[in-house]
Amino acid sequence: MIKIAQLSCGTEYSSVQYEIEKAARSVGATIVHPDVSAADIDKAVERFGFKPQSPQLRLMIARAVQLADRKYDADAIFIATCFRCAEGALVRNELRRFVQDNTRLPVVTYSFTERMKAAQLLTRMEALVTIVTRKELLARERQSGITAGIDSGSSTTKAVIMINNKIAGKDWTPSGDVIKSAELVMENALNEAGVKLKDIEAIGTTGYGRYRLGKHYNAKLVQEELTTNSKGAVWLADRQRGEATILDIGGMDNKAITVRDGVPDNFTMGGICAGASGRFLEMVSKRLKIEVTELGALADKGNWRNAKMNSYCSVFGIQDLVTTLGDGKTFEDVAAAACHSVAEQVYEQQLQEIDVRHPIIQVGGTSLISGLVAAVGEILGSKPIVPANSQYIGAVGGAILSSGFLEGL
Amino acid sequence: MKVFIDPPNSLILFDLVERSGHEPLSTMAEIQEKIEKVELDMPPMNVSVEDVMKGLKYAGIEVPSGVRGRLAIWGPMIEAAEAAIIMEDCPYSFGCVGCHRTTLMVRYLLKKKNIPVLYVDYPNDEDQAKDLVVMMREFLEGLK
Prior knowledge:
The complex is a heterodimer. Chain A is α/β, with parallel strands linked by helices. Chain A has 15 helices and 13 strands. The longest helix of chain A is centred in the last third of the chain and has 19 residues, at about 330-350. In chain B, α4 packs parallel to α5 (about 100-115). The model of chain B has no long low-confidence stretch (mean pLDDT about 90). Chain B is globular and about 45 Å long. Chain B has a single domain (about 1-140), classed as Rossmann fold. Chain B has helices spanning about 10-20, 25-40, 50-55, 65-80, 100-115, 125-140, and strands at about 1-5, 25, 85-90, 115-120. The interface between A and B is medium-sized, with 23 and 18 residues.
């Protein structure tokens, strides 16, 4: 059983402790709380150097010190504090750095409200467990045989057929019915590759519909998208060795993953505010009466400084847009402002939660919006790499990782 | 040497550090820079929205803007610091950053930096004040 050490403040009083344990159980892990004696707490806080007023935050620090000193054995770490607690947010982030500096354990951080449910944690917990249990599989750098990957995302469904480490067929469609959308893209990808479904030796499914598709196709690998996306991204960008940060601004949530030699070691996944998502750019395109695929080129011609938009909420964001258009700003400036707004919020809400490592590999459907990539580059100070087929990362990752099962990994 | 002082707006600490031949890192110098070079006219502190965003380097979005805005000023000063003098329990008139969370974070960042730090208590009478000046002078001389 994988042991996930919980370092937290407030979970018991927020009605979410059960949900945390439920999420861990559902991925075959158990939540543990490092033992600390009362006498250890003050010493640990003194050593850590940040002295919060809240006693439970002090206990949290003492537990982290136990893990750092190898006095308590765990496989992964889950750090959580209440949303909107400033002291908690400060401790959470610094503790994350502290345990990463002092251990090799994978870490995930989270700020919760009383409405948090196990499902929201599932992907994060699953990724933690995968990093612990499937190190050998994750270290895989080549695809072998004939395999397929299907990524059932919130906005689009993608399929890729890979043959001997090359993409032989691919297709995508807007997501509708999970099975029908997957069948459609699989059929087209198979046709392009010139192979039949029966020829496929292994299938990997990922994304929100991964469990249904896994059952439907009898997939060898059913994997959350943090793992598959990072594998697909480093393969597509040919950055299998060394460090990188993978940024995927998705339709429903955004992922920022740091990798070392292709294996994720820290990630954040956000999705509270739609103003920072790909969905917002779709809404903007609709209002501008253009296809989302045209938004990037339009933004490239504009200047975001002429039409400021920075709402965290997509509804208010569209309100900003309407007002800005009413003021006579150009479509180009508005498109650039929308891209800048999303990039800025991804930076504010997520990228500060991980220590960004260069190069930055921007992937997912939104990486095809050139204006958004330019905005991310401007904010982070270096232009992200956008590999060819960047929208297929999840499917490519699924195809690569599932081929590992052909060799008995 | 560059010496960070805490409270960072203490004129007395600033003066003592400067007299000993070191460079005090203080809020006053930072704000003066903004007024004279960047020509930001936003009293009283001249902290802009861009500054608050820069504070994200030190604290997440969930941390209140006032903490991030303060850290945007003091964070780079701490990064530049080669030593620090911290005064505990000082009255408002001595200097103050007005935010306990920021104070916690400043102390933490200094500890993490692993530079020589002198912790002193605010003096309550003349003798303690004299002792304090001697102690600080010794610390500052030792840095040379």
